[in-house]
Amino acid sequence: MRISAKADYAVRAALELAAAEDPPVKAESVAAAQGIPLKFLENILVDLRHGGIITSQRGPEGGYRLDRPADEITLAEVIREVDGPLASIHGDRPEATEYRGAAEELQTVWVALRASMRSVLEGVTLADVVERRVPAEVLRLAREPDAWMRR
Questions:
Q1: DSSP code for 107
Q2: Exposed, middle or buried by CB within 10 Å (0-12, 13-18, 19+), for 91?
Q3: What is Dmax (Cα atoms) for the chain?
Q4: Is it the case that residue 112 has pLDDT exceeding 80?
Q5: Helices (H), 20-135
Q6: For a Cys staple, 127 with which of 5, 28, 70, 140, CB 3.0–4.6 Å?
Q7: Do residues 91 and 52 touch, judged by C-beta distance below 8 A?
Q8: pTM of the model as a whole
Q9: d(CA 18, CA 28)
Q10: Cα(first)–Cα(last) distance of the chain, in Å?
């Protein structure tokens, strides 16, 4: 699995907005807090706004805020807004793939991988991360001995 820079930045930006005590928050503040290039962040914020995750306010007191409570926005939702489906094979959804011969059962593996990603990313909200209360199942997976091993 690969998390794009765009998806990583989008989640981190959304977390900054979720943690903000006095929204709206200026893009420059989010960029500085998370070390995200401002021009890249501005494009991400447009995607998140179009997707209904954040809203913007113009003017000197303007900036960005979440459009819904942080406990209603999952990490999966943020990632989908900037990168599209969580899993794709050559641009297609796993269920749309077809294999023959020795690779015939590979579609099942890709569908299972997507289901695994969904169970983690759809089960964690922005509030869970900001409030340091990641669900027990996610913690269990992260605490597996080989989870932190590079392979």
A1: H
A2: exposed
A3: 63
A4: yes
A5: 27-34, 38-50, 75-83, 106-121, 126-130
A6: 70
A7: no
A8: 0.91
A9: 16
A10: 12
CB-based contacts of 34, cutoff 8 Å, min separation 6: 9, 12, 13, 16
User: In angstroms, rounded to a whole number, what is the distance separating the alpha carbons of residues 106 and 37?
Assistant: 38
Q: Are 74 and 122 in contact (CB under 8 A)?
A: yes
CA atoms within a 13 Å half-sphere pointing along the CA-CB vector of 94: 16
Task: Summarize the confidence of residues 68-97 as an average pLDDT.
Answer: 94
DSSP H helices, 51-105, are: 75-83
Q: What is d(CA 59, CA 89) in angstroms, rounded to the nearest whole number?
A: 43
Buried b (16+ CB within 10 A) or exposed e, 65-87: bbbeebeebbbbbbbbbbeeebb
Using the structure block, give the residue that is written with the tokens 């809203």.
55
55 has which bridge partners? 65
Percent of the chain with pLDDT over 90: 88
Please give the average per-residue pLDDT across 22-34, as a whole number: 96
Quick one: how far is CA 83 from the chain centroid?
9
Average pLDDT over residues 30-48: 98
The two structure tokens encoding residue 55: 């809203």
